[in-house]
Amino acid sequence: MAPRRWTVAFGGQIVMAFKYAFNTWTYSSFPAWVPSYSLEETIRRIAAIGYDGIEIGCAAPHAWPSHLSQEHRRDLKALMGDVNLKPVSLLPAPGGGPGNNPASLLEAERTATIAHYKEVVDLAHDLGAERVLYIAGWRSFGTGYQQAWDWSLTALREIAAHARDKGIGISIEPTSSDSNLIDTPGQALLLREQVGSDNVKVMFDTFHALYRNEVSSDYVHEMAAHLDHVHFADTDRLPPGEGTVDWYGVMKALKDIGFKGYLTMEAGFSGRNFDPDRVARSAISYLKDLEKTLD
Prior knowledge:
The protein has an eight-stranded parallel beta barrel, surrounded by seven helices. It has a two-stranded antiparallel ribbon with strand order 1-2. With 295 residues, the chain is an alpha/beta fold. It is 40% helix and 17% strand. Strand 3 (19-23), helix 1 (39-49) and strand 4 form a beta-alpha-beta unit. It contains nine helices and ten strands.
């Protein structure tokens, strides 16, 4: 596990510094097919660049659950320990193929999605991760909003119960640029409330806030009481500092609410024209420099 990092502020006051994690999509042929690296190679690169944690996308070739034997899982966990990289979170790959839509108009898909999420939860447990992200799904043409909501809520209750038994948290993410069910902080908070499980929290992604032309720091304050995870990406999934997000405002808001989670980069994967290492280096360098300027 990556150690907690501390920094000495002006006047000698010791405060806890932010922890940084990097999502594996840009290294894993999702959704663009190249570039593509093994999960082992990705772990080594992210650790070498200086990240404290890693968020693992559950798609081939990295972490489709049925592709990873128990021995392979133990080896991956050991490797992350060896390079001092904390497995922070896992997330499914929704869309295409089997779909993985908990609000699908197909009962068979909803059932399969719940089963898949349980497999992702089990993988998170085996790798030593703390949480699995929940994408609430999307409403298909001809399905009423309330019906889609109820299907997703039913799925999440079953998934959350399984996760609680495994000691895993679930983080609901508003995905407004990709879906049409959970678009706003308020909707994510309402779904969390209706689930009624203490291991279910909320998160947000600055990229999705941009899609809604909303202020990312407002998401921090609205979700504060139940916020346990964040995704950082700038305009067009560029690394932070290369687009239009007010990163000072986001970082200051997170500091003000005493956020203790990982600042997780989910950037650089919308096309094959991204260099993963450059994205990872640029993001952490920019944000660590910015962190020094926070009041």
